[in-house]
Structure formats: C-alpha cells, structure tokens
Amino acid sequence: MVDNMRKNFPGLTVETLKSGKQRLRVRVEGFPNRKIRINVDLDHPKFSEHYWSARAGIELEYEPASLAVRQSIKWLTDKYLLHLEKMVAAKQASPATLRQRKSLLTRLCQHKTDSDDLYGEMSLNAPTAAFVKVRDARAATPAEADNMIKAARSMYHWACDSGHAEVNPLVGIKKIHRSQGGATPWTAEDLRNFKERHPQGTMAHLALTLHMFTAARSNDAIWLGRGQEFSSHEVRWLGWQPKKRGAAYVEIPMAKPLRDAITAVARIGDAYILSEHGKPFKNADSYRNWLRKRCDEAGLKGRSSHGVRKALAELLAEEGCSEHQIMAVLSHTQPSTSAIYTKGAERRAMAAEAMKSISGFGW
Description:
By secondary structure, the chain is mainly α. Helix content is 48%, strand content 8%. It has helices spanning 2-8, 47-55, 73-89, 95-110, 128-137, 142-162, 188-197, 203-214, 218-221, 256-264, 284-297, 305-318, 323-330, 335-356; strands at residues 12-16, 22-27, 35-38, 229-232, 235-240, 250-253.
C-alpha cells in the first residue's frame, strides 16, 4: 500500500504520532526541503484535491467529509455550516446561532418532496416555490416555519456572496406566523407564588430576582457575576455588554433585593446563578429549561425569564419612566422598541382620566 501511495502520490509521507494519529505531509514540487501538511485523511472524498494543492505549495483548510451531491442543497448546507463554525471560532457569530441554524437547515434537508425524495438532494438552484412548500407544510408550527426560511435565506445570502449561487430564491417569501404577544408578562401574584415556593437563599429565588432587577436576558444571566460589579459614588453597580447582537451596553445600580439575594445563596462561583453541580450553565437553553422546571414547581405554567423582563418594562412604564429610561435598563437601541410599553401605559392613564368624566353619570 505504501509503495502504491508513493507511486500515485509522489512526495507524500505518512507520519505516525505518539498519540497514534497519522499526519500527512507533502513535499512541494520543485522545493525538496519544503513540506505542506494535508488537513484531511486518506479516505476523505477531497483527499486528491488537498494533495495536488499541497504539491503546488497551497495548504487547504480542513473540510469535514460530506457525501452530499455537489451543488445540492445538502452540499451547500455543509459548506455554510462550516463557514458558521469558523465565524463562531473568530467570535463573529454566536454558538447559539450556529446551533439553531444547524438544527433548522438539517430539518430542511430532511423534508420530503412530493415524490418522497429528500430536499437535501435537490439542486441548490431550486425555485422559490419549492421553499414555499416547505414553509406551508409547517403551518401548524408557523414560528418554526418562518425561522427555517430565515435560516435558509441567510445561507443563500452567503452562497451568493461566496460564488456558490447566483440568486437567493428565498428573498420575498413572507412570514406566516402572527405574533400573539410573545412571552406572558408575570403578574404580582405570579411573583409572589414563585417566591413562596422558592424563598430567599435558593438559586431559583436569586434567578428571579436577577431578572427582575436587571432585566437581563437568559444568555446574559448565565454568566453575570461579581466580575461585572463596580462602585461609583458609593453605589454598587452592574455593568455588562449583552450578548445579543446590536444591544447597548448596560450599567444599572444594584437594588437592595438583588444584593440580599446574592448574599443569601450558599453556592458561590464565577456567575451568580449556578446549576445543581455548582457551575455556571453551559448555555441559555439549558438554563431556560431549568428555570421552566422551577416555574412548574410553583404552579406557573407558560412563564419564562423573558416574561419577567416584559413585566419589568411594563412596571417602569406604569411608574412614568420615559422611553429613554426604559431603553437604558433593557439595553434597547431603538426608541420604537421601548415605546411599546410607554404607549400602553399612556393609553391606560388617558382611559382612566376619560372614565372619571362619567363617574357621576346616573345609571
């Protein structure tokens, strides 16, 4: 086998490392003292491409083996996800984005056509109507359908920029999900029931208090800790850059209930909120699942950390806070986002004033 390799691939050497793994190197043609590493295995589908590039003095980057047909949707998906992995490694994209798009695009590739073939086997030049069919087939879960189209649209946008596709067939496909108001805001009774089930000193109580007095999103709550505290004019503050893309930097004074909740917990670590193992949660999804279970224990079905954030926003608006004040707390960058809460409070105030005018009306 070695003789055949040397005959078919001149200049190729296979080195066995102490770990048992093999390292492939190729002598550059015309430069006997220069060798380039091949970043794929011998049985990789693109081994020959990597070998001949190395012979020419070019080192290609690693590519995961893909059995997808070239120019198919699955072939494009593999290339796009590899691109996203590199973006995550360069801190230009979040791991959560990679996980979500990988899941959505995998489901897209596994969708069946009318002839029972996989969508992943279709040409990447499939028409817009093909993707509309996928969207409509998931009408029972419209939010998922729209997210799948959004992920595919982003993939094709990259494909057009990188020269893998000439047109983006997903441009113009409309959403089918109609918002029902999003997360349910917590009521005063919800907060009271949760605290009765999870009193001060528990990690669940600390989690609720952190969300209530910082409006932190889940992907920030899992890493916020003493490292983000600072003092200014004898007041203790929290300052952090939210992970959400485009969010504004947050600086907020630490309210006494929050400081008391932090002091009351027995487990101390790099983050305020720790798992049962005493370590920060690995990602926002695992944290949300944990908090959902704590809500269920308190008899609060359908409640979430984002609902606490909405409750705080509405409370601030009810107390007369301006759009810009709410923006500073919630890390909004557009007044229109915070205006959702202030306008609602203003309308309720105007309605109350209006009803006073007929309060003495005989009935």
